[in-house]
């Protein structure tokens, strides 16, 4: 029998609690609530306005750090959230052994009262009687009874070479199957996806209620969830509910008494309707709705309050009174990835569970900030301060007496105000600024020596090249918020040197060692684009301009020869050109954009080593074109009177809790090298990113376009460039 291997996809899981329900009373911000609220017997109320009542983060615990459970040959391939039961949250971990290519599973609980972790059960597929080709699709658990429910897919070719696929719901107890429900016919009869490789939409499929109902929200063959199916514990279909047209099922909301509400976004009405299954009447009915633009993510119900996330704000909604309260703004706290957030409860205290690139966390909150008259002021002059905000959050967790005020000062009027405050001996204590802004502030005497503030020990936590970003002369003024490397990659057989000048680049092209155009993916760029990519960083470190004399050299023979080196080529596929791929060069570097986690960093290192490629950098006059880009620089006001608090803030920023954070769409890596230790030598090769003179760039690229379009000679174009650049240099001296 010929076996096939399917894509492993594991979806978010929720499970059934046999725990005794406790009545919980809450006071303060979250209202007085009892677990016996009869939400089924009334229509939900909603008020139009949302009140604001801020909270702060108080504690943080990493759920994914199970290094003590993992052997040296294993890694966490996937973690599956199973749900909260009383004081505990449950996870199922898939631990993959790269050497043996086998997996084992561990069901782990975390007690929210003291954040202790314990192993609930461990097993492999063979332990429970399954051999390949069975693959886990999802799971759920009944922790008090020691039962784990798995959805397993079987796939194989029969004797007639026909593909056979089956699906089973299997209940596992003490590594034995105690009950199994064959779901194959149901899935096939309802045109649902059977292949686990197509199920990974990031949402749950099965939800187990405390009354024994099983709620099933599967995708159909068109990648959509159209039906809510309700089964009893034996797999008998009780009811099915089809969503209205122009609507989308949101993730179900687990109530405090162990049932589920089902939000449905009505796109044509811009609202979310909430329905539930009534066991007594065996019907699905609407309870109420709320206006929303589609961003709402309901997460949990506690007593009479539904907690949901909308536009990075956590909001509580009392369905009895209709009152809504904004609990906290996640963006102000430095957290953006709200797709993975979930509200939890323990002892009437709210927790937020969230994911980021470094792991999965539980964070507890407090109803109000502790007031401290010696609050430090932090201002963002860039408009992108995610890591700095996260450092503020962490500093508050480390020191509850710390009070920090934060302001977005990225507008021109805000910057002018801050400069005026500095002139009067005031201004924010800490600022996030561009590197050019840092140089300007140093010239005006506005910044403190950062080493005097944070000390040598904290300074030495930074990668050496990151320190260079914050240096002006011999003084260390700023800590970069994030960094990444930008460079040029070549094959070691084509270029023997580890760096190159413009002359060496031209000689390599003319000798046939290097193809003149930049390779991107499987394409070779045009001559015009290749020149732009290579030249945009070299205006400050090339023979184009004598910056000391402020004299343009664009009409020189050197510049003419350099441009001619790129030839006259159009964009083309590398497969359509007779060129050795080893003789191509490409833009590359070290960033979260191309390397996302520790394993992919290691894979990339192995790729470079085995393939023979290396970083050589951009061609420059001084021969080191490995550049370090920065995500802004954190600087300190020379007039600050809160040096100790500022030191604590920068210390929190340099700590692993903040440096481990990764954000979607963010290329920047840790300035301390957290999680990328093997790549630190590459980053240490770098020099700070040169200033990009956009005015001169525009002149050069604009005047050269007719040359590349064959409407003007190179001599004519360079003559105009030389004249215009010289005028600019004279006017800006």
Q: Radius of gyration over alpha carbons?
A: 30 Å
- Overall 3D shape: globular
Number of strands: 43
CATH fold annotation of the largest domain: Neuraminidase
For the biggest sheet, the summary is: 5 strands, mixed
The CATH architecture designation of the largest domain is: 6 Propeller
Number of domains: 3
How much strand?
25-35%
- Helix count from the secondary structure assignment: 15
What is the helix fraction of residues, given as a range?
A: 10-25%
Q: Which CATH class of the largest domain applies here?
A: Mainly Beta
- Major β-sheet strand ordering: 1-23-22-21-20
Q: Which structural class do you get from the secondary structure elements?
A: alpha+beta
How far the N terminus sits from the C terminus, by CA atoms, comes to: 79 Å
Describe the fold and architecture:
- The chain is an alpha+beta fold.
- The chain has 3 domains: 28-366, Neuraminidase (6 Propeller), CATH 2.120.10; 376-482 and 635-661, Periplasmic binding protein-like II (D-Maltodextrin-Binding Protein, domain 2); 486-628 and 691-731, 3-Layer(aba) Sandwich (D-Maltodextrin-Binding Protein, domain 2).
- Helix content is 20%, strand content 32%.
- The strands form 11 sheets. The protein has a 5-stranded mixed β-sheet, with no helix packed on it. Strands 15, 16, 17, 18 and 19 form a 5-stranded antiparallel β-sheet that branches. A 5-stranded mixed β-sheet has the order 28-27-29-42-32.
- It starts with 50 loop residues before the first strand and ends with a helix.
- 37% of the residues are buried.
- Residues 1-35, 196-203 and 367-373 have low confidence and may be disordered.
